Amino acid sequence: MPNVLTVLRVLGVPLFVWFLVREDYAAGVLVLAIMAASDWIDGFIARRFNLVSKLGRILDPMADRFTLIVVAITMVATGVAPWWLVFSILVPDGILLVTTLVLFRSHPGLPVSRVGKFRTGLLLLGTPLLLLGQVPLLTGTALEAVALVILLVGCIGHWIASYNYWWAAVRKYQGLHRPQVSPST
User: Domain spanning 2-167: which CATH class is it, in words?
Assistant: First the structure.
């Protein structure tokens, strides 16, 4: 069930893009809110009912990365968000992707960190708030400034989490490739 929710969340991404291209910001906020809620719900169900799976531990973070990247690119391309949002997400994710592909040729299976969860929460909060600031009734309010501050802190958290994941991947690789010392007899 949690993996089904993760897949459904990813399927919401094209719908979000479509709404933004049509400048239907309220509908875009609704889609983002549903996607964010499904991210929390699938994790809750997996932990609460002991349905955590190896596939889920890989699929969920990949779905989060894909969603954040496409949402950020779409918001920048439509003029809703500043360019630094995409830069702040793509650069660390690109470095991590190259590192894990070179070292492991696949997903390294690292646990999600608290900083990573906090960062994701801030990005999932700031993004719809920024979009909500585009809704005609709310344009010109402090909502956009608040959303940008939340996104900035989320992006800083993204860099910190990425740095921590990078070091964790390197340490895991080193641990897997240490020469084995045989006990002397």
Answer: mainly alpha
